[in-house]
Design a protein that fits this description.
Blueprint (H helix, E strand, L loop, with lengths): L1 E3 H5 L17 E3 L9 E4 L2 E2 L6 E5 L2 E2 L1 E2 L8 E2 L9 E8 L13 E7 L7 E7 L3 E12 L2 E12 L9 E13 L4 E14 L4 E2 H5 L14 E17 L2 E18 L14 E22 L2 E24 L2 E27 L2 E18 L6 E19 L2 E13 L2 H5 L17 E13 L5 E12 L4 E3 L4 E3 L4 E15 L2 E14 L15 E10 L3 E11 L15 E11 L4 E8 L7 E9 L9 E8 L4 E9 L1
Parallel strand pairs: 5-10
Antiparallel strand pairs: 1-9, 2-3, 3-4, 5-6, 7-8, 9-10, 11-12, 11-37, 12-13, 13-14, 14-15, 15-17, 16-36, 17-18, 18-19, 19-20, 20-21, 21-22, 22-23, 23-24, 24-25, 25-26, 26-29, 27-28, 29-30, 30-31, 31-32, 32-33, 33-34, 34-37, 35-36
Length: 634
């Protein structure tokens, strides 16, 4: 599925990450401050900060392995939505060119090379929201130079203001076309913020804090990202070649306190997570057409490689002051994937694809606890296949089957003792975990103006093993299965009006027996969205979008469940003939008193039993907010 940038920006969203909710069935939320990676939910997965959703921007991977806050951490706060040309969306482990982190899905974001008109805009809104954007293109030599800079300040509705200070820039030179040309891009991003994390519900119920209060006002973080990247495309009689390469410097300091005084009744449980890395890699691929026994065939071959040099640490702190080191590691981790696939058209109504991918992972850990140092390596082959019947009456039927993988934090593959006490033995986990999927579906345009699809899918994981960055240890989850259905619709009766309706249901369960239960905590069953979008190039325009995030089990026996949320966002505006635009967004239109995210675990407030209290912990949805944008295109 390919989604245009215009469709992404046609609906209002609260934060940058929510721009990705244009992907059917994807929920993007936040449990902390506005500089931290979002939390993603797709196809019955609580993907945490990106564990099984592979995100790329202009060919650069966003997911970070062996990260200080969680495996696959995917922070897209550096994204500038107005620069998006398209999103390429694929779901399931069925694509040979998608490797690690892509079992649930993959989203490839591409920026424009040239803007049709320069942009200058300012946005002012509730709770101290201010954003400015300037972007433009100009001809330089035989190509185009694109420049953009964005600045954001935001306090939010919280009792302790977020005090977000974000600056973001892009500089890009491009030449030629999408099939014969190149781009060179530089990006820079810096952000600092305070955060109101999820809080214990009992603290609100007892009046210790308000609904928008915090139990540790010193939580927050600092983040930055700098990158250089290039893309080259070349066509010849021998086929189409594409090569991309990148170099990224990423830094993150996070301060969180989720359990308050459970582990340290005197100083509190705040901890600092450090992740500082330099990574580089490339993706080279070639496609060529030929005939297999007289049948039209396209074959693609490719190789991808990545290397991360990481300084990662976990420290106990109080009000952001260092108390002790839990663990501090130097990690060098690399992976390479080689792949090929072939698509053959056997007739006007039948085509098939087969592919295979081999991934190699290796790395070393140098830990401040020598017992946890070591080397690890693993490889895994992942075959894929697909078939498409049709089209008949502008309708086609398809099926996919394939295997994929999920890498674990390499520290979990070398660990031997608990880094907290340096004594308790811990089991190592495999570096790679297998995923298996199967999907059948229908895609139809039989009704004029309506594009509709329905998919039935099943996805198995051998084990959802995770390295828990908050504790510095590995948590071995159980094997699981997700079975679900997605129904996606877009109806465009006239060029200036469209209706979207997406509904997904997933049954997510652990597949082994355990008396604690077989429900997967945080896994959503029902999600959905609906939108109405109207407007022409000039004159009135607007949109209304509703997003439903169904209740989730919070513990394995399903005895504690989260709230559901239904949030409406609305937009109305006017575009003048001279390029001026006035736009009003109303976020959480009906001021729903619900939560962005909920968890259930032990924590301890001052004066409570030393063993803590099991409770629901929630990060509330922001109340109704209004944002006014004044923009010019010239």
């Amino acid at each position: 599925m390919r989604i245009g940038g215009g469709q992404v920006n046609a609906v209002p969203f609260l934060r940058t990450g929510e721009a990705l909710e244009v992907v059917p069935g994807l929920i993007v939320t936040q449990h902390s401050g506005e500089g931290k990676a979002n939390q993603y939910f797709l196809r019955g997965f609580n993907l945490d900060h990106g564990t099984d959703l592979a995100i790329t921007v202009d060919g650069m991977p966003v997911n970070m392995p062996t990260h200080g806050h969680g495996q696959g951490y995917a922070d897209i706060n550096f994204l500038i939505p107005e620069l998006i040309q398209s999103l390429n969306v694929r779901k399931g482990p069925y694509y040979a060119d998608v490797g690690d982190f892509g079992s649930a899905g993959a989203v490839g974001i591409d920026y424009v090379n040239r803007l049709p008109k320069n942009i200058a805009e300012m946005t002012f809104g509730s709770f101290g929201y201010r954003r400015g954007l300037a972007a433009g293109s100009t001809t330089v030599g035989d190509g185009s130079l694109l420049a953009a800079i964005e600045g954001t300040r935001y306090d939010g509705p919280w009792d302790v203001p977020d005090d977000v200070r974000k600056i973001n820039g892009v500089l890009r030179y491009s030449q030629g076309t999408a099939t014969d040309g190149f781009t060179l891009s530089g990006m820079a991003y810096s952000n600092a913020w305070n955060s109101t994390d999820q809080v214990a519900q009992r603290a609100i119920d007892q009046g210790i804090i308000g609904r928008l209060g915090t139990l540790d006002p010193t939580d927050g973080g600092v983040s930055s990202r700098f990158s250089l990247s290039g893309n080259l495309a070349h066509s010849s009689d021998y086929g189409q070649t594409r090569v991309s390469a990148y170099l990224i410097r990423s830094d993150l300091q996070l301060y969180n306190n989720f359990t308050y005084y459970l582990d340290d009744p005197v100083n509190g449980d705040q901890f600092n997570q450090l992740d500082r890395r330099t990574l580089g890699g490339f993706d080279a691929r070639h496609a060529f057409d030929w005939r297999f026994g007289g049948f039209e065939t396209q074959t693609r071959v490719g190789v991808q490689s990545r290397y991360d040099d990481i300084h990662v640490g976990l420290f106990k702190t109080a009000q952001r002051s260092w108390l002790s080191t839990v663990r501090e590691d130097r990690v060098r981790e690399g992976n390479a994937g080689i792949w090929t696939d072939s698509t053959t058209r056997w007739s006007d109504w039948l085509r098939t694809s087969v592919g295979i991918r081999e991934d190699f992972f290796a790395g070393s850990v140098s830990s401040d606890t020598p017992e946890n140092s070591g080397n690890a390596q693993a490889s895994m082959a992942s075959p894929k296949a697909g078939i498409v019947f049709g089209p008949w009456f502008r309708t086609e039927f398809y099926g996919n089957v394939g295997t994929g993988l999920h890498s674990n934090d390499i520290r979990g593959a070398t660990i031997t003792v608990d880094p907290n006490d340096k004594v308790t033995p811990l089991d190592r986990v495999p570096l790679l975990v297998r995923s298996r999927g199967v999907e059948v579906g229908i895609r139809s345009r039989a009704i004029e103006g309506l594009t509709s699809s329905i998919a039935l899918f099943m996805l198995d994981f051998g084990s959802e093993l995770l390295f828990v960055g908050d504790a510095g240890t590995t948590e071995a989850s159980r094997p699981s299965r997700r079975v679900g259905v997605e129904w996606v619709n877009q109806y465009k009766p006239v060029p200036w009006l469209s209706f979207d309706l997406d509904i997904a249901y997933t049954r997510a369960r652990f597949t082994d027996f355990d008396p604690t239960g077989d429900y997967i905590p945080g896994a959503p069953a029902w999600v959905g969205s609906a939108a109405v979008i109207f407007g022409k190039e000039t004159g009135w325009f607007g949109a209304v979008k509703a997003r439903y995030f169904g209740p989730r089990p919070l513990i394995e026996d399903d005895s504690v469940r989260s709230l559901a949320s239904l949030i409406f966002n609305a937009r109305a505006g006017y575009r003048f003939d001279n390029g001026l635009r006035v736009q009003l967004d109303v976020l959480n239109l009906f001021n729903a008193q619900t939560n962005q995210i909920e968890y259930y675990y032990l924590s301890r407030l001052p004066g409570e039993p030393i063993g803590g209290v099991a409770d629901r912990h929630a990060h509330p949805a922001e109340p109704r907010a209004v944002r006014l944008t004044l923009a010019a295109r010239f």
